[in-house]
Write a structure and sequence with these properties.
Blueprint: H1 3-32, H2 84-104, H3 106-109, H4 118-128, H5 134-142, E1 154-155, E2 159-161, H6 164-181, E3 195-200, E4 206-210, E5 217-221, E6 227-228, H7 236-249, E7 258-261, E8 267-270
Antiparallel strand pairs: 1-2, 2-3, 3-4, 4-5, 5-6, 7-8
Helix pairs in contact: 1-6, 2-5, 2-7, 4-6
Length: 273
């Protein structure tokens, strides 16, 4: 079974319910967590007129009592220099991926966007509220993400690299939902303001780089569950290198996904059997 079918279903559903699903999932998850605070349900409004002259009690929402790490719009105005070694390694991995795509999956090759400008990357950093990791800057200087979801290039199996706009936009959505949940237990376990989204699957999940200690550790998030660092290599560059090797050899990556080429000459990832 291939990801194309699964992705189509995900995108169709996500386009209608993803934001509501995020809010529900975070709030519901927080209520189930052991030790999480519980709150009584707000009073319902009766369907028949009330003749009481007493003012209705205001409905309150829980409020975070711990730092979410969210500093939207307050990121550094200037980018830190990218080490030359980082740029060389990122570009070398991209050279391998692009060579294979052009020869075998030109439809997907065309979805790689041109490089982002320094100004656009710096603006994404400012909006996100956290310094972007050097390897992400190197990625964006090579390609400003991909065009659309569909048959665009994806790190296995569904992770489409984010553009500068998507990095900032996804960070905003995640922080707003985290803060609105008001549940301390969600901070760091569901999302954190110092997580930098780097790839999305179109269904509310994706990959991020953890900047809480400035190391940029690669992790993945699930909008209905929690974040994990167990299913990915340590860095985004390593994942791209492993993807390049799988493309060149026809081998597996990311837990057993194997590259295949569709009839439309696009890259797809076959699910592990």
């Amino acid at each position: 079974m291939r990801k194309g079918w699964g992705r189509a279903v995900v995108i169709a559903v996500a386009s209608v319910v993803i934001v509501l699903g995020l809010v529900f999932a975070v709030t519901d998850r927080g209520g189930r967590d052991k030790g999480a605070r519980s709150y009584p349900a707000p009073p319902t409004t009766p369907r028949t007129p009330s003749y009481s002259t007493a003012a209705a009690a205001p409905t309150t929402r829980p409020t975070l009592t711990v730092d979410s790490g969210c500093r939207l719009g307050q990121g550094p105005a200037e980018l830190a220099p990218v080490p030359e070694a980082t740029t060389r390694r990122v570009n070398a991995a991209w050279d391998r991926v692009e060579r294979w795509l052009k020869a075998n999956a030109p439809t997907t090759a065309k979805t790689l966007r041109p490089p982002a400008t320094i100004a656009r990357i710096a603006e994404a950093q400012r909006k996100t509220g956290v310094a972007l990791p050097a390897e992400l800057v190197a990625f964006l200087l090579r390609h400003d993400g991909v065009s659309g979801i569909g048959e665009s290039f994806a790190l296995p199996p569904f992770h489409h690299l984010a553009s500068t706009e998507t990095v900032a936009g996804q960070a905003k959505v995640m922080c707003e939902v985290l803060i609105s949940s008001g549940l301390d237990g969600n901070v760091g376990s569901w999302w954190h303001g110092r997580f930098v989204p780097v790839a999305v699957d179109g269904g509310g999940d994706g990959l991020f780089l953890d900047q809480r200690t400035g190391t940029g550790r690669l992790g993945d998030w699930n909008h209905e569950g929690s974040v994990s660092f167990d299913r990915s290599p340590a860095t985004l560059t390593e994942l791209l290198e492993q993807t390049a090797t799988a493309l060149e050899t026809g081998g597996t990556v990311a837990g057993g996904y194997r590259p295949v080429v569709t009839a439309n000459r696009a890259l797809d990832w076959e699910f592990p059997r």
